[in-house]
């Protein structure tokens, strides 16, 4: 059911359930979709198929999403790339944009979110400055990013953060701070 009017899409995510669900939703909307579970596989597909668009997870085993974005843009500078992440930060979004990403979306995102991201910001979004995260939100994102980099090991994450293990456990027991609290 692929139409000639819809661009081809490469989905790169190591979460197979999320990747296949998003691929199915895009195919149901008439897009030709290729999927890859990691960076090396994605780049092989990109060289062979030359997708017009790519959706790339930021955090993956092996080659990270930012490296994949840079290489996709080197292979074909016209490829539009949207970066997805569960650990978003302003610094990472800026870095992804510098490497050529069209947009940056938090997970979970659905097919409609992805398609809107490729369409670009709305007139309301262009006219308004993005809100800076609260200090509590920035701390929570940083802790979770370090924890993810430590493969979920609390002791290792506490060592990297320079805090006591119990202090880290207390911080993790709290929910993510509300953005507008």
UniProtKB/TrEMBL annotation:
GO MF term set: sequence-specific DNA binding
What is the source species? Rohdeia mirabilis
Question: What PROSITE patterns does the database record attribute to this sequence?
Answer: RESPONSE_REGULATORY (PS50110)
Q: Where do the Response regulatory domain residues begin and end?
A: 8-122
One Pfam family assigned to this protein is: HTH_8
What keywords tag this UniProt record?
Phosphoprotein, Two-component regulatory system
- Keyword Magnesium applies: no
**Modified residues annotated as 4-aspartylphosphate in this record:** 57
This one is known as Photosynthetic apparatus regulatory protein RegA
Which GO annotations describe the biological process of this protein?
Answer: phosphorelay signal transduction system
Q: Which PANTHER family match?
A: PROTEIN PILG, STRESS RESPONSE REGULATOR PROTEIN 1
């Amino acid at each position: 059911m692929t139409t000639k009017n819809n661009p081809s899409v490469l989905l790169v995510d190591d979460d197979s359930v999320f990747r296949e669900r998003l691929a199915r939703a895009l195919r149901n909307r008439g897009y030709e979709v290729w999927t890859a579970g990691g960076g090396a596989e994605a780049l092989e597909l990109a060289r062979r198929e030359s997708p017009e668009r790519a959706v790339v997870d930021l955090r993956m085993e092996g080659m990270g999403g930012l490296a994949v974005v840079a290489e996709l843009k080197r292979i074909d500078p016209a490829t539009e790339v949207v970066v997805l992440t569960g650990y978003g930060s302003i610094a990472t979004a800026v870095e992804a944009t510098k490497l050529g990403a069209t947009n940056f979306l938090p997970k979970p995102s659905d097919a409609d979110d992805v398609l809107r991201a490729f369409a670009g910001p709305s007139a309301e979004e262009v006219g308004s400055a993005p809100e800076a995260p609260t200090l509590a939100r920035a701390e929570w994102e940083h802790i979770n990013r370090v924890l993810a980099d430590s493969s979920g090991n609390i002791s290792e994450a506490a060592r990297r953060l320079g805090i006591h293990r119990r202090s880290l456990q207390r911080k993790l027991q709290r929910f993510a701070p509300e953005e507008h609290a």
